[in-house]
Amino acid sequence: MTDNEYSKTRKAAVDALIYWAKTGMREFTMRDAVNEYLEASGANRPSIGGE
Q1: Which one has a higher pLDDT value, 9 or 46?
Q2: Is 32 strand, coil or helix?
Q3: What is the pLDDT of residue 14?
């Protein structure tokens, strides 16, 4: 994933979180955007061995 794609994924997650926090709507859109960002950043991978 390029830096540009990563930045777009992060911005989409942030925008979705802000919209959900302000309105309480689009919870599933926010969840999906955050999950995509976490997957792109590698935060969902184990730090010690394994897959």
Answers
A1: 9
A2: helix
A3: 92
